[in-house]
Amino acid sequence: MAKRSVALVARYRLTPWWVKVVVIFVASRVVTTIIMTSFAARQDANPWTGPKPDYFDFAAIWDGHWYYIISAVGYPWTLPMTADGRVAENAWAFMPAYPAVVRFFMQLTGQGFPVVAVGVSVAFSLAAALMFYKLMHLALPGGTALFAVVLFCAAPLSPILQVSYAEPMHLLLLTLALYLLVQRRYWLLIPVVAVMSLTRPSGLAFALTMLLHVGYRWWLQRPTARDREEFALRDRVASISVGLFSAFSGVAWLLIAWAVTGSITAYTDTELAWRAAYIGDGQLVPFTAWVSATAFWAPWFGMSQPLLLVLLVIIVAGFFAVLLSPWARRIGVDLRFWIASYALYLLAVFFPQSSLFRLLMPLFPALGVLALPKSTTYRLLLVALCIAGQWAWVQFGWWVDGQDWTPP
């Protein structure tokens, strides 16, 4: 028995890392598919499907329908308007890279949108899991990096990895971009950032990451720096160029929407159309949406707006304080720059509502911090909580129960 155990341990250690990641990914998809199909079997007729839809139709609801529209007919040349004269919800809120890939494979295979979209998302998700291990292993031991992958695949929002949303494609591109940044292979970042910024809004956040990265490397080259590091001219030129390109990529979709529709505010007006359901018409003023949200959400939480605002400040301050902790430092400074930059981006432009959990997914490098404790009990409990979180998210976010008024 002991010899067999030793043999199994030896065989596991000799197993290539990518095989371990694939096994983790497949096992996690089995669990998530069981959860999703159990809800699909109880799903009533809704705006997108009839009762008891199959898995693929169930996975193509909500924003998946917008991606279907884009893959089928593209974007409107004229912005649709509501009866009261404001821009209505429309396809310009969704970027073109993911539906373009889906359309390509629809034409290649002859299959319909639901099947192809799910297949494309799963393929991107597997690639993202493999790339995430490579990223984590730059800073963490192999076993810890592998458990970070477990958390990535089992996270409460991981059903998104196998539905017709752009997140899987974006997660792959973001993981690749962060890997190249940590490796300081700057010029290779340009095509990755270009496609990434046309998959999900991320160019401006990555530009801030590059600004922090350049400033940090400049600081380290000082003669008095404790961990002195040369910042060669070629690296300065390359990193600054990537930062400027990222900033341009962050506004490229706004410029494209302007060029096509003739309205300079086409994209921002479209995004604000979703916010109007909560607080009515308004302008996009950076860092004010979260304050406005406290007035909307305070009654839901049974507290006053000032108290909710104080709670929000404490949560935000605590979040950034954790990034300075010894545990967070284990994942490296560049990943922490990204986490901080993306969090600031959300605080600047996003109105917090039910999609917030999904929009937090690009903070996934923080899973490396959660993966640090080696206690078996801790790890098993954390995975169990993640799986329970999947069920809760599908129950309250994805499943259509007739009382839904906000998207997942």
Automatic annotation (TrEMBL):
<keyword id="KW-0472">Membrane</keyword>
<keyword id="KW-0328">Glycosyltransferase</keyword>
<keyword id="KW-0337">GPI-anchor biosynthesis</keyword>
<comment type="pathway">
    <text>Glycolipid biosynthesis; glycosylphosphatidylinositol-anchor biosynthesis.</text>
</comment>
<keyword id="KW-0812">Transmembrane</keyword>
<feature type="transmembrane region" description="Helical">
    <location>
        <begin position="335"/>
        <end position="351"/>
    </location>
</feature>
<protein>
    <recommendedName>
        <fullName>Mannosyltransferase (PIG-V)</fullName>
    </recommendedName>
</protein>
<dbReference type="GO" id="GO:0006506">
    <property type="term" value="P:GPI anchor biosynthetic process"/>
</dbReference>
<feature type="transmembrane region" description="Helical">
    <location>
        <begin position="380"/>
        <end position="400"/>
    </location>
</feature>
<dbReference type="InterPro" id="IPR007315">
    <property type="entry name" value="PIG-V/Gpi18"/>
</dbReference>
<dbReference type="GO" id="GO:0004376">
    <property type="term" value="F:GPI mannosyltransferase activity"/>
</dbReference>
<feature type="transmembrane region" description="Helical">
    <location>
        <begin position="145"/>
        <end position="166"/>
    </location>
</feature>
<keyword id="KW-1133">Transmembrane helix</keyword>
<feature type="transmembrane region" description="Helical">
    <location>
        <begin position="21"/>
        <end position="41"/>
    </location>
</feature>
<feature type="transmembrane region" description="Helical">
    <location>
        <begin position="113"/>
        <end position="133"/>
    </location>
</feature>
<dbReference type="GO" id="GO:0016020">
    <property type="term" value="C:membrane"/>
</dbReference>
<keyword id="KW-0808">Transferase</keyword>
<dbReference type="GO" id="GO:0031501">
    <property type="term" value="C:mannosyltransferase complex"/>
</dbReference>
<feature type="transmembrane region" description="Helical">
    <location>
        <begin position="237"/>
        <end position="260"/>
    </location>
</feature>
<feature type="transmembrane region" description="Helical">
    <location>
        <begin position="186"/>
        <end position="216"/>
    </location>
</feature>
<keyword id="KW-0256">Endoplasmic reticulum</keyword>
<dbReference type="GO" id="GO:0000009">
    <property type="term" value="F:alpha-1,6-mannosyltransferase activity"/>
</dbReference>
<feature type="transmembrane region" description="Helical">
    <location>
        <begin position="307"/>
        <end position="328"/>
    </location>
</feature>
